[in-house]
Amino acid sequence: MRYLPKSDSERQEMLAACGFTRSEELFQQLPKDAVLDRPLNIAAGVSEYEIIDFFREQSARNANGYASFLGAGVYNHYRPVMADVVVSRGEFLTSYTPYQAEISQGTLTAIFEFQTMICQLTGMDVANASMYDGSTAVPEAAMMAVRITGRSKVLVSRTVHPEYREVLSTYARYQGMPVAEFGYVAGTGQVDLEDLGAKLDDDTAAVIVQSPNFFGIVDQVAEAARLAHQSGALLVLVFAEAVALGILEPSHEADIVAGELQSFAISPSYGGPYAGIIATHEKYVRQIPGRLVGQTVDMDGNRAYCLTLSTREQHIRREKATSNICTNQALIALMATVFLEVYGKQGLRELALQNLSKAHYLASKVKPHFTGPFFNEFVVSGNVEKVNQELLAKKIIGGYPLAKHYPELKDTMLVCATEMTKRESMDILAEALS
């Protein structure tokens, strides 16, 4: 009765008020073939402790205690306990839209801190209050570039996360925004600047590149930006591995930065929810989608926070909106905020160096497929299916097969080493590949 709290007598009282004696009479106006005349073909209900036991049994089937070399946009980093302690507080866990600044100062303050630190990480002047995730941040950045330039075409590198490109294609389908891809250099795994230059034209609004790219390679952002700017297009820089921001210099050549913050204390959680961001220069602030929190003072001169440059109608009226789809993942973004507060500037750099060191130790044991510089993941060649099966038998989850998205890379996989990766597991992977 916990989930259906009405007693039989209460149900009869309600039916009587409607002039009925049986619940089936509530549906008597429906056609006979639309009404199910038998019980649902599902198991009988069970008690609460039985269902808890059931889910514990299912949980035990997961790969608990397995080492993992999976990356590809979702990374296995340590999550500080403090993140869950803070986000579990009722002020954050139950809060909704902070339009009423007078009762939402806690949420607004947290978002303001979030925006500030994202600007520091990306080298941009302004960042929004977060996006649904990295995959939706990319097309939102593309549409932002279209609004700014008055052009319609978008060029995206094949080294941008394949699923990000799929979401971009879905967004663009009915936007009148043609999307074309340019390739990568087979040897280095970096963007093919020659191919990019050949495809740029006077209608190109944005050039989208990712660094570190989907192959884990630190890409040629400055060169891609130079080509884009020569043709009057904007450069959108994408990141999926946020920890890399702790060691890579911000790209001052980028016009818009879009990315995914899953690495900042956000659990993989079977694919979400996550938190994306868009950051840009101040001159483009009125074209940025989503919410912005600004700092002001109240009537007594005390510091206060409120939503700014974006009215409520902008979120719900198509003709006024910069986006009708984006959302502010405030609770998830708060996890990233706590992460950054806990680690600090130097801590994030040390974390990035640990990732770099472990990945390069692994690379010293195997031969990376590409020669370009990489951060914490890289591509290796081998009998992917056989190697992954062998690793799984040793309680190790292997790399991500690339053939699904890159047919030309049939016998390759993407492997990742983070601060959580142990040397013993890396040695076993190297042995399996050899």
Outline the secondary-structure elements:
Elements: H1 8-17, H2 48-60, E1 67-68, H3 81-87, H4 90-93, H5 105-122, E2 126-127, H6 134-149, E3 153-157, H7 162-172, E4 179-182, H8 193-199, E5 204-210, H9 221-230, E6 234-239, E7 256-260, E8 276-280, E9 293-297, E10 303-307, H10 313-316, H11 330-365, E11 377-381, H12 384-392, E12 396-397, E13 400-401, E14 412-416, H13 423-433
* Total of DSSP H or I helical runs spanning 4+ residues: 13
Q: Briefly note the structural class of the backbone.
A: alpha/beta
Contiguous runs where pLDDT drops below 50 for at least 5 residues:
none
SS elements, strand count: 14
Helical fraction equals 25-40%
The helix/strand series, from N terminus to C terminus, equals HHEHHHEHEHEHEHEEEEEHHEHEEEH
